[in-house]
Amino acid sequence: MSAEANRADVVYLDYNATSPLRPEALEVMLDTLRSVGNASSIHTAGRDAAARVDLARQQVAHLLACAPGELIFTSGATEANNLALHAGYSVGETLATTAVEHPAIREAARAITTDGRGSLVELPVDRDGVVNLTPLEVAIRQGKVSLVSAMLANNETGVLTNMDPIIGLAREAGALVHTDATQYVGRLPLDLNELDVDLLSLSGHKFGGPQGVGALFVRRGTSMPYRPLLIGGGQERGWRAGTLNVPGIAGLGAAAKAAQMQLHNESARVASLRYVLEDGLTSRLPDCYINGARSPRLPGVTNVTFPGLPADALLAAMPEIAASNGSACASGAPSPSHVLLAMGLSRQDADSTVRFSLGYATTEHEIKQAIEATVLAVKEVRTAMAATAEP
Prior knowledge:
The chain has helices spanning 23-33, 44-64, 77-88, 103-112, 134-142, 163-173, 246-284, 311-316, 338-342, 347-350, 364-389, and strands at residues 11-12, 71-74, 94-98, 119-123, 145-149, 176-180, 199-203, 214-218, 289-290, 301-305, 321-322, 324-325, 328-330, 333-335, 353-357.
């Protein structure tokens, strides 16, 4: 297992949950933690801290091909998503999202459009995870749509969203466009000169930065009735009050720089490893299938259904593999993945799905270990279930 993992005997394939901290990020964070200074202070220590923040802003901007002044640092993508929805949505109008959004969008969208303050349209997807735009077209004809939010890459299946027709419809309606790019940034090239969105959210720990820091891109010149979530000292140009997390921001910047430099080689290598994993599983376990396999996907994500075999039992049978099941947890109680249900899977199949997500430190040896462990786990669970079912 890679040196970044917590245990040497565990194969870490849960990059969509969080990725190992890149060495470049760790190094700059340790150096920053040895320093003192509030980035808002005007003395030398404060100016040094502010310089670290400025550098990180430039590094993240370079990764996104945007201007540094268009970035607002946050505590992560959840805050960035909430800030984007609150800033871009006009109360009393229509907010459109997709049925497969992360809860940070899905639940926030439902919250801000309740109590008669507006309407919410959730765009369905087909079996391949492709968004159906018809409800958006209808909503535009029926009333004022002020904001459309669609994720760039799905966190469970890795399916990529074709943003061009969504952006086109939004522009016709005079609506703002936000995208949750949490799983996309740092894994595939992104140029905000070409992707014409008004708002974009990201989180550092998905591409080798530290947990607890992210950013919101706000395109220069965007007009919106923005309402800050945090009010106080006026940091981040009034968008997000509070003392800046200088070590975290510095680590985010270093991870962005490292990801930018290695992006093309990493994405190709990770995609080839995903192919090895999928081929190994489907050839040896012909009953399993890949969700979203016919759609463009992130290079390092595969969402595999093992019909009739509970995902939690499979994961328990292979403790040496760090992967995740296809179910989300709401209020501490397991429930089928809303993403897989939206794609047309049955509740049973949704509960029989495992997500493997690879990243920059994944090795071919680890993939081979994962294949062997999964095949063995499937056999063990099938045997145990058959024994339990016997009279």
